[in-house]
Amino acid sequence: MAASLRIQRAPAHDKDQNDRESNAGTPRAVETADSGISEAANPEEGDDRGSSVDWAELVMRIHRGDNSGMEDLYRLFARGIRFYLCRQLGMQELDDKVHDTFLIVVQAIRRGDLREPDRLMGFVRTVVRRQVAAHIDQVVHSRRDELHLDVGVRVVDGRRNPEQNMAFQQKVDFMVEILNQLSERDRDILTRFYLQEETQEEICEEMELTETQFRLLKSRAKARFGDLGKRKLQQKALVPFFSRISAR
Amino acid sequence: MNAGFDRHFSEQIWEEYARGMRSEEDCRSLEEHLLICPACQDLLAAADEYIGVAKAAAAIAALPRRRLSKPVATAATLA
After folding, report:
1. Which residues of chain A make contact with B31, given a CB cutoff of 8 A?
2. Pair A224, A230: CB distance under 8 Å
3. Is residue B2 part of a domain?
């Protein structure tokens, strides 16, 4: 794992959770010279908050019922748990699910079930995953009971509101525009990757591409998508401006 | 690997994670880190969205280019 995953320093975050939620992480994408892989850049150095968290001490405080321990636990994990649950299960009853997860974690710590306090993150992850699995199980069973069917069950409610639908469709249109500007071969490569879900290795082998060529194509398409999106948004922002000007 | 606030993973890795292409062991480290790292939550959210958009766009772009049939072309001309 350590060798296969590239990690680098994260942008600094305020310690305050509210600030973190409003400004949360705006890492810039840069291309590394060696691989062409987009990496998250580090706008600021010097945040050592992560290394300053003493998990064992935090667990100890929660174990003895210290309110500050619960507050810190919430501050550290609330956004992440919410994000994970929302991604897996959708928005429905999200607050309740987050609350249940915290309750399970806190109760387990108070009972002394967490034997390795340094592994608090792993423990929280296990609890969250069990919550997800239990919810999926429940949904599958209830729908099976209702429909007497065991196929085609969708757990995440992927529906968007009309505004989100419009924004998504606009982005799809940008992407179609970009794909149509590519050569047939390049378009085929991206279609295989995103639509047919072929792996990078399969595509590279079949289309005689190097890993670098593949990554470059992918990152260029992404960069064009970002540029086009920005341009269109700027144009859109200028429309009211120009209509005001022309009305004078 | 020690996940913490002071380090985070690349867009490339989150895209692979979103596509279900990382090993179980990788997922463990990534998800532990994800729980406490807002920057990586944002990267993963962006990867999810981009993959969804790219997939939908690729499906449209992969459709055979349709040409206007004669009657339609005539109707369009008349209009």
Report:
1. 84, 125, 129
2. no
3. no
> Interface pTM (ipTM) of the complex?
0.75
CB-CB neighbors (< 8 A) of B4 in chain A: 50-51, 53
Greater model confidence, A30 or B15: B15
Element (H, E) at A74: helix A67-89
- CB B50 to CB A222 under 8 A? yes
Compute the nearest-CA separation of B65 from chain A (Å).
11
**pLDDT tens, position by position, A36-86:** 223 343 433 333 344 568 999 999 999 999 999 999 999 999 999 999 999
- A123 and B CB contact within 8 Å: no
Q: A222: buried, middle or exposed (CB in 10 Å: 19+, 13-18, 0-12)?
A: buried
Token pair in block for residue A62: 């929660």
B1 located within any domain: no
Domain membership of residue B16 (yes or no) is yes
* pTM, full prediction: 0.71
Percent of chain B residues past pLDDT 70, beyond the cut: 72
Domain architecture of chain A: domains with CATH: 53-147 (1.10.1740.10), 162-247 (1.10.10.10)
